[in-house]
Design brief:
mainly beta
Length: 242
Amino acid sequence: QWTVDFFGIQAGDSFAVVYDEKFVNGTSVGVGRVWGALFKHGGKEYYAIPYAQEQGKLRYWEANGESLRKQLLKAPLKYTRISSKFSNARLHPVHKVYRPHHGVDYAAPTGTPVMTIGDGTVTSVKYEGAGGNTVRIKHNSVYSTAYLHLSKYAKGLKVGQRVRQGEVIGYVGSTGRSTGPHLDFRVWKNGTPINPLKMDSPPAEPLKGEHKSSFDGVSEKYKAQIDTIQAHAMVKSLFELL
């Protein structure tokens, strides 16, 4: 949810997982600890390597030692499709003229929960004309976000409130100038609007330098196991084709 937008997976994506399976009297009763994973998405490879740099706190990391947990989520809701992308000259669906659209429109049913993509402080909760019911959040000195066209706000949400990453702040709607239910999601970096789909969020928890050598050994171990799983899967697929 921090590194991969799982609502935007596509044909050709794949995954491999090393995990414990629990058995009672020979019957599988569930999955235990995940020891490593690889997710191939959009032509990129994302590893999940378990490592505890603090006693008793197992976390998952990318193969290069960056935390998989990021300061900002990849998407603020479970959406049906992207109906409009970030653009400096989009043909407006209502006015039929070309205007900047510095956000991403996520089409989704009315009432779909909308989450804040990161920890932050609510700076505005109000109706904003064309934007309809809108929530604005300041995450830190660099990033801020806005969530437009909401049908309603989360119960009790108010200006000045601290919100946590993944917390529901409202629900999809079609308030304001809108042709159907969707979320218009916007991000600013140092006051400048940026494309949310191309945003790279910094890790929330960096790997400390003194753990680098130890982590590299763990990473190579689990990468080798994952690669072996993938190789076996490819051979199996070839036999099935033959």
